[in-house]
Amino acid sequence: MVSCISISLRVSRCRFRALGNSSSLSIARQYGTSTQQEKLKVLFMGRDEFSCLVLEELYKARDVWDELVVATNPDQRVGRRGSQISISPLKAKVETLQDVRVKLIPPSKAEFRKWKLPEPFASYSCPTETSIESSPPPPQSHILVTASFGRILTGKHLAHFLPTRRLNVHPSLLPQYRGPAPIQHALLNGDEETGVCVIEMLPAVKKTSDGQPPRKSGIDAGDIWAHRKLPQPGSATFDQMRDILGREGGQLLVKLLRDIVNKKEVSEPLLSVPSFRETGVDRKIQSPPKPQRIDGGSTIRPAPMIYLEDAQFDPQKLTAEQAHRRWRAIGHQRPTSTFVEVSSPAGTTKRAVQLHDLQMCPQESADAVHQRLPLDSGSVICMTNPQDTMALFIRCSDGSVLCVGKIKPEGKPVLHAQAFWNGVQGKNKAVRFTGH
């Protein structure tokens, strides 16, 4: 095997041997053969709470790095007329750490594509297939790490690091849940097992003559160097799983980086994740995503972006379990939304509401609820739950019952179930929930 230290002007010699196919486990690659230990210079790129947790674990591992640079989003004005300032959680986190430099990326995607990496990383570059850079090849001690970064790195960005030094911490067991919302979709599907992995990043290069991306390219496609399986409790929320996976992902990353620093031979990749072209998977798959099989029996399940309509609750179409999963998975970013319809002799009114504090109908309340609650989907009653607080009980599509603790009417603050019920229920009034 050719060491990347002895890179000449040919691209093929800057790259380790590629895995032959997704199921092959016969090829071993090394991160280095020298016995001399050299700490790493790390460029860490992220933005949200998940990346903060990964960074925390990396920061504590002072035995693996001697320079840590963090690139993240700048403050942005949001809300009506830019009345509020949104601060990147990672930026706020870095400001509390010592010996860490922070670099802010341009706010727009177009500007970011032209953005120059900070030093010392910008001074080195691998030659590309179409051009030969005048700068020296990157040292093996330079590492790029991304975690929930939210931006696509260009080939020029990645070229400042050796191929096996471009690592992404992804909160799923790739190739399952490729895309921007892996934690959410694992919860939406009710998976009992989840996990986190460290994957080698490939450039998202231009399309070929047939209009398709090359096979060895794309987002969340590349060699998986480490993964860790974890149980996913049936009652878990996004925030809970994000925190668990963030810490586990950070520890997994540190373990891998220690192997690099200690010049341990890293065995063959666990799996080579193919591009979307190889699997025939459309990145814009509509919900619910359908699993796809690849060589070796692994399953690809896309994790597309979460949209406003994904949070819509229609009791005529969804079961209580499905509604509860949606709230646990995406309620933090897209509140569960529906409509309440109030009918009286004077007419019918309908208004939009958000549902909060959702749970399945407690077993202790099941008999009393089923006796009082009409069988029609969308029907609702207000009664005491096992916690001795009032809650709304809504009949769903399969006869199951959803328990709701709080409601936010459009343009109003969040109300406890009893306060909301007192405002809509009255003599000769019929109240029901509907998805449209």
From TrEMBL:
Annotated GO MF terms: methionyl-tRNA formyltransferase activity
EC number(s) stated in the UniProt entry for this protein: 2.1.2.9
Highest rank taxon of the organism: Eukaryota
Leading EC class: transferase
CDD domains: FMT_core_Met-tRNA-FMT_N
Swiss-Prot/TrEMBL keywords: Protein biosynthesis, Transferase
InterPro entries: Formyl_trans_C, Formyl_transf_N, Formyl_transf_N_sf, Met-tRNA-FMT_N
Chain intervals for the UniProt region annotation (Disordered): 281-300
Formyl transferase N-terminal domain ranges (all copies): 132-200
SUPFAM superfamilies for the chain: Formyltransferase (SSF53328)
Residue intervals of the Formyl transferase C-terminal domain: 317-424
Pfam families: Formyl_trans_C (PF02911), Formyl_trans_N (PF00551)
Family, per entry: Belongs to the Fmt family.
PANTHER family to which the protein is assigned, alphabetical: METHIONYL-TRNA FORMYLTRANSFERASE, METHIONYL-TRNA FORMYLTRANSFERASE, MITOCHONDRIAL
Listed name of the protein: methionyl-tRNA formyltransferase
Organism field: Ephemerocybe angulata
